[in-house]
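Researcher: Please predict.
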Amino acid sequence: MEGEERARDYEEGMRRARRVVVEDLEKLWIEYDKHNDILYINFGLEDADESIMLDNDVIIRLREGKLVGIVINEFSKRAGIDVY
């Protein structure tokens, strides 16, 4: 039963992730954490009230249903680049 519940939660998160809205691209800022190889894409300074991990381990951060950030783990590996 636990696996079924987790699958339902995941599917609901995916449905919600497809409907996100970016309100203001002028507030876009990007930060790269070289030590942990994480790329942060932020749409303003708002804190998220919810985070959804997608099936590719990318995390989208939402505030009241609006996209406030994207977190990409292992960015250099995914992008096929070497970071020095």
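Model: The mean pLDDT is 81.
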